[in-house]
Design a protein that fits this description.
Length: 281
C-alpha cells in the first residue's frame, strides 16, 4: 500500500463484538455478491450469526460462496439474477416476498470508462449502465416495498464518490447512472422513512479491486483497500445515519469550487495532448 493511499484512505477497525450483537439473527440481502466488494462483504459477514441472501449473475461463484459459508456461523442462500433483464428481476422479487429482509445492500453495479468519440455507435453501453446502476435497484425496491416496510428494512446504497464531484470525460455513462439512483434514494427518503424504511449511502472512492486492476490507467492511482471498504459498509449496516465520505471530502469540495472555472480548460488541454500523442510519427 503506497504512502499516498495510507494518507488518503487510512485503515479502520471494526468493533466485532458490537457488530455481532447488532447483526445477530438478521437477514441480509447483497446484490452483486459474486465478485468485488459484494463478495468481500459476504465473506466478512460469514463470521456473524446472520442469514445471507446472495444475488448475482454468476451461479458458479454463488455456489462456491454458499459452500464456503458452511464453515462459519452464517447461513447463506443464493439467487441467480441478471440485472440487465426486467423479467429476471421480477423473478427475484417474487422469491424475496417470502423473506423478511432486515438489511438490503444495493451493491450490484457496472463500471464503464469510454470517451464520447468511442461511444458514438455504442448506445447499448448507456442502456446497460443505466439498467444495472439505476433501473434494477429501483425495480427491486419498488416491487417489494410493502415487504420492506413491514420488516422495517434498512437499505445501504453502495455508491461512488464520483457522484459528489464534477464528472470527468469518459465516465459520463457510469456516473450519470450512479447519480440517478443516488438522487432517487435522496428524493424518496422522507417517504421511505414514513414507511419505516431507512437508507444511507456509502460514497466509496477507488477501491483495490478487479475493476481497478483491469484499467491500466489506474496502475499507480491511490486506492482504498477492500478490507477498509467492507468495514465502511458494515458500519453503514449497523449505524443507520452513517453516510460515509472520505475525510478529505470538504477540502476537496472547496478546492473544486475555487478551480471549477478551469475544469473544462484543463480537460480540453489534456484531451488534446492525448490525441496528439496517439498520432503516428
Amino acid at each position: 500500500m503506497s504512502l499516498a493511499s495510507r494518507f488518503l484512505f487510512p485503515r479502520h477497525s471494526l468493533d466485532e463484538g458490537k457488530c455481532a450483537t447488532i447483526l445477530k439473527g438478521k437477514t441480509i440481502l447483497i446484490t452483486g455478491a459474486s465478485y468485488g466488494i459484494g463478495e468481500a462483504l459476504a465473506r466478512r459477514l460469514f463470521h456473524f450469526e446472520v442469514h445471507l441472501i446472495l444475488v448475482a449473475r454468476t451461479k458458479e461463484k454463488l455456489e462456491l460462496l454458499k459452500e464456503e459459508s458452511l464453515k462459519y456461523k452464517a447461513t447463506a442462500e443464493f439467487f441467480v439474477c441478471d440485472f440487465y433483464q426486467e423479467e429476471s428481476i421480477r423473478d427475484l422479487c417474487e422469491h424475496l416476498r417470502t423473506h423478511a429482509i432486515d438489511i438490503l445492500i444495493s451493491n450490484a453495479g457496472k463500471s464503464l470508462n469510454r470517451s464520447l468519440e468511442e461511444s458514438k455507435d455504442r448506445f447499448h453501453d448507456f442502456r446497460r449502465t443505466m439498467a444495472v446502476n439505476y433501473l434494477a435497484p429501483v425495480q427491486l425496491i419498488t416491487n417489494i416495498l410493502n415487504s420492506l416496510a413491514k420488516n422495517r428494512t434498512h437499505i445501504v446504497n453502495v455508491s461512488t464518490y464520483n457522484v459528489l464531484m464534477k464528472t470527468p470525460p469518459g465516465w459520463t455513462a457510469y456516473v450519470s447512472s450512479k447519480k440517478a439512483f443516488n438522487s432517487w434514494i435522496e428524493g424518496n427518503l422522507p417517504e421511505l422513512q414514513a414507511m419505516n424504511i431507512t437508507a444511507n449511502s456509502i460514497y466509496l472512492p477507488l477501491v483495490e479491486s478487479r475493476m481497478k486492476d483491469t484499467n491500466v490507467r489506474y496502475g499507480n492511482t491511490p486506492a482504498m483497500t477492500m478490507e477498509t471498504a467492507v468495514i465502511h459498509l458494515i458500519r453503514g449496516m449497523t449505524r443507520r445515519n452513517y453516510n460515509f465520505k472520505p475525510w478529505w471530502h470538504r477540502p476537496f469540495q472547496i478546492f473544486m469550487l475555487v478551480l471549477g472555472p478551469f475544469w473544462n480548460f484543463y480537460w480540453r488541454r489534456r484531451l488534446r495532448k492525448n490525441n496528439q500523442s496517439d498520432v503516428p510519427r
